[in-house]
């Protein structure tokens, strides 16, 4: 859907239902882990190219069980592979949803900022003639003070 001005809202009930859906997802995935940076660094990574390798290895293991040691847990390998492919499928859907939420947040945030800038312009103009608006104009203008006080970047070494 092409972006247009967003006119929407979420009721408190909808927000609660969405949060409940998140809780349901987490409850259905009780085995999820959180890895440290070091743990992530040390683990093998299974990307798209590796998926074919793992699939072929699984087929080789299933058709040649006699070459594997008795200690090799083929059932666990099958479960790991099946869970990895299922989680990959779910992750694709979650990433699409996250991207849509992120894009919508960016768009509606931009709309809110645009409206805020319009209000700020009106307040600044009215503050010149309307008593009591000067402090409000200054308060709204605080948003831009940090931007103006930053030194301009120079290209040293050019």
Protein described:
With 158 residues, this protein is mainly α. It has helices at 12-28, 37-42, 48-63, 74-127, 134-149. α3 runs antiparallel to α4. The protein is elongated and about 90 Å long. The mean pLDDT is 91.
**What does the average pLDDT come to?**
91
| Binned strand content | under 5%
The helix content is 55-70%
Distance between the termini: 45 Å
Kindly provide the radius of gyration, computed on alpha-carbon positions and rounded to a whole number of angstroms: 28 Å
Net shape: elongated
What summary fits the major beta sheet?
none
Number of DSSP helices? 5
Low-confidence stretches: none
N to C succession of SSEs: HHHHH
Number of strands: 0
Strand-pairing-aware structural class: mainly alpha
Question: What keyword list fits this structure?
Answer:
single chain, 158 residues, mainly alpha
Tell me briefly what this model is.
Helix 3 packs antiparallel against helix 4 (74-127) and helix 4 (74-127) crosses helix 5 (134-149). With 158 residues, the chain is mainly alpha-helical. The chain is 69% helix and 0% strand.
Q: What's the helix and strand layout?
A:
Elements: H1 12-28, H2 37-42, H3 48-63, H4 74-127, H5 134-149
């Amino acid at each position: 859907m092409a972006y247009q001005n967003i006119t929407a809202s979420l009721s408190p009930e909808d927000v609660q239902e969405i949060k409940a859906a998140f809780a349901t997802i987490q409850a259905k995935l009780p085995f999820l882990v959180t890895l440290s940076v070091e743990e992530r660094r040390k683990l093998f990574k299974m990307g798209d190219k590796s998926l074919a390798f793992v699939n072929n290895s699984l087929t080789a293991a299933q058709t040649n069980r006699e070459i594997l040691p008795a200690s090799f847990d083929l059932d666990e390998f099958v479960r790991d592979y099946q869970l990895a492919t299922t989680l990959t499928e779910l992750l694709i859907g979650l990433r699409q949803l996250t991207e849509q939420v992120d894009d919508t947040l960016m768009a509606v945030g931009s709309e809110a900022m645009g409206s805020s800038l319009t209000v700020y312009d009106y307040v600044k103009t009215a503050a010149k003639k309307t008593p009591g608006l000067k402090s409000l104009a200054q308060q709204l203008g605080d948003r831009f003070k940090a931007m103006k006080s930053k030194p301009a970047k120079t290209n040293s070494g050019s």
